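dumping this here before i forget
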Amino acid sequence: MKGIPTKVRECMTKEVLTVKPEDPIRKVWELVEKKKLRRFPVLDGDRLIGIVTDRDLRNATVSSVVLTEKKYHDFLLDTIKVETIMTPNPRTVNPETSLREAAKIILNMKVGGLPVVEGEKLVGIITETDLINAFIGVLPE
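structure:
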């Protein structure tokens, strides 16, 4: 039987889809729809510079009644860059952070996940879903 996970490295998602600051927000929108994910670290080269979420996308694209016109909506999706709607310098944890601490940060900050970095290198992401899966894994049947 596997032991009870206590560290972020034991539960984090290691294969992370990322975007670049210069990507149009259409790319993120398509990732949200196709992959059913809600947050994407933003990398400049190998360096984490931000995070963009489905909420950021919704806020950017529904901020005007004019967006009901498809051509204007399409124009915005292709013109607005990720860097203009991302949260810069997001709160991060490292693989050795305790799951308890990561869960407290997520709860207190009211966010859905945190990038996991080693030094300046992105190595994963820990999300509410990862934490719930860890919790389910230790519950009795």
